[in-house]
């Protein structure tokens, strides 16, 4: 049984991007004034309103945390939320600001870039070794083919041909499209019909017991057990935010898909990390034991990819009634690209963002991987709002977000600031800090999600990838 949500009537009188984000989450519009904002000129400069969308995503996440915090702590009012454009801009560049023992991170591999084709442009993503191998295989090239050879081959082919042949081989390549071309594309139409945050209640299972919060700082997610089945940026941003707020987040990866070390150092702060092979019976039993005590499962693989492990929402609802499931994808679950892999940079190219930020003659890019980061904060907010609703009404909950849908909001629905008091963004230094870790001395971006009385930083640095035990830690919520 799927029980649909109804949005508040105030949706018809939306005024800001924060209103849009909060309404998409099903939030009470009367709470939006609890957010105060420091607007900074020069933060996330772009042709599109990236700063405004970024601020709205972080603000909605902080407000969702404050709302659940008030419920758990029995506060008379929802704590105030303060969003600073400087903190948001710095966090949206977190992977660039990371330093490990003073070393700059490796962000994009040589074959992850724009390429000229015979009739336009294509962008590829080959940061992971298996994606590089599939790209080169689709082009008929050797595994050690240099950039110059790849460029020469692509220059002789059409962008559409490259897109289809590389995807058919399991690789990642997307042809540059204008906004008009994407709007006319079947996947573009499917994404346009998709809500910014899709939300469902699958049953009427009773609410879980909710112990009150105690101590300082206030940690709205204290005791929450989160299974993190995500990779790259958007999903890990969501789960590291839940970790910031006190959740016990256990990231699970396959031993056959190791993470890029710098990506792990940036994205897994506050979490624990383990490896399980879900095709191996012993590891599958371990996973099932973890699931039996989890409160939240967050997935970031393409739609349907984990269903063979019994991880579809319907199966999870049967096995663990009252669970909150959060699903993230690149293109959404519907349309001809619903089952395709994708990344922020590729979604920018397909949806017309790259053409808008540059041109069809020379494409550009957003000032940060804002689709990833923004969608990540919205995903965390959707989990927190689901927990609030579940506490009050019960039910197994599912939320779904897609990078392409966030892109549609940025392209068509977001608005520029007008008439607001402003300060200057003079660089990231006020929102960077350092700590020692098992990986070395880390410099990293502080979280932009701030609520009165809440945490200002993560409680623990990242450990070594895959080295934590596959078990829950400490005390937890009942049930």
Count every helix, treating DSSP H or I runs of 4 or more residues as helices: 17
What level of helicity do the residues show? 25-40%
Count of distinct strands: 17
- Cα distance, first to last residue? 23 Å
**Cα radius of gyration in angstroms:** 21 Å
What best-fitting shape do the alpha-carbon axes yield? globular
Poorly predicted regions are: 1-14
What features would you highlight for this structure?
479 residues; alpha/beta; eight-stranded mixed β-sheet; globular; disordered N terminus
Walkthrough of the structure:
With 479 residues, the chain is of the alpha/beta class. The longest helix is centred in the first third of the chain and has 24 residues, at 50-73. Residues 1-14 have low confidence and may be disordered. It contains 17 helices and 17 strands. It is 35% helix and 16% strand. The strands form 4 sheets. The chain has an 8-stranded mixed sheet. A 3-stranded parallel sheet has the order 3-2-15.
Question: Summed up, what is this model?
Answer:
With 479 residues, the protein is an alpha/beta fold. The chain has helices spanning 17-24, 50-73, 85-92, 94-97, 129-138, 147-154, 159-168, 179-184, 186-192, 234-244, 261-267, 281-291, 313-319, 344-350, 353-357, 370-393, 403-413, and strands at residues 3-4, 35-41, 81-84, 99-100, 114-116, 121-124, 173-175, 198-201, 225-229, 248-253, 272-275, 296-299, 324-329, 397-402, 422-424, 432-437, 440-445.
